[in-house]
Amino acid sequence: MIPQLNRQHDTHIQHTIEMKTKPQGALGKLETLAHQLVTILSQGMERSQLESERPDIVRPQMLIFAGDHGIAGEGVSIAPSEVTAQMVANFATGGAAINVLCAQLGWQLSVIDCGILTPPAPELNVVSQRLGNITRPLHLEPALSEAQLDQGLALGQEAVKPALASGTNLFALGEMGIGNTTAAAAIFSALSGLTSAETVGRGTGVSNEVVEKKQQLIEQALRLHREALHDPREVLRRLGGFEICQMVGAMLEIARAQKIVLVDGFIATAAAMLAYRIAPACKDYMVFAHCSGEQGHQAMLNWLNVEPLLNLNMRLGEGTGAALALPLCQSALAFYYQMASFEAAAVTQVVEPS
Length: 354
Hints:
The chain is an alpha/beta fold. The protein has helices at residues 10-18, 29-41, 47-53, 82-92, 97-105, 146-165, 180-192, 196-199, 208-225, 232-239, 242-256, 266-278, 297-304, 320-338, 342-345, and strands at 61-67, 108-115, 127-128, 170-176, 260-263, 286-288. Helix 11 (242-256) crosses helix 12 (266-278) and helix 12 packs parallel to helix 13. It is globular, with a radius of gyration of 21 Å.
């Protein structure tokens, strides 16, 4: 069970923000972010503790979940499924964009094999949480079995427990899996009722013909599974992926522990939608890092009624957008704790006319 976010300090937190030496609202989304972060980080604290302990971000953890998709065999991506394993090796040896950003910004990074065609070599130190080699094609049958669904959710929960035990209070989840934009678009259509024409984009840059094929396959999948799509667990089982399943489990566990999860792009937001439908209270612990360049992502964010921190036209995945949001989180807390109040700075507070 995920605890409801206790908002006992809401009035105090907002007053603290408004009394900083600036016009009200002048720091824009940074103020909203500060309020959300301080609220989450102060769970279980008395107001005096909030003032004295000043809870901050500790050991931020990036987890990349990788899995292969049976739908990729239908030619829905510019790359074959073998590229998933190649990119996992690239993550493990430090050569990908996410490695560069994590090293620059101070993230701890772990890579998790949720089920890819070629298991990584042992010396790569990739965490093995395999549910199989590849999902079944979602337009022909459920992508995961019931056993894989249950095991995947449990493994996702287990994936975050070592970091939680070490004191981590902010997580980001990245992903890798050829074909997973098709799975994410199918999930979005199933949850929102939007057509595949509204949810399918170009992924990593496919042609118009491939976009049309993706749309047709998703419509076929939605027709095949329509009787079960009222249940978010069945949406995940029938249309998801090994990595998406474990991301959902991880998000639910992070929220259960009342910590922060930075949500990345299109695939991560599909996982967030499922987690929200399974346990609505988890949304309060989510910070949406950026709006992807992938068609449909803004509509996902609208469906969730959230605003992203960044819009950089990125559509890479891997957790890159979430990684870039870490300095904004740190800056939001820095201004909240360190910026002087009007009273402390002996600055006259100017109240804007109503």
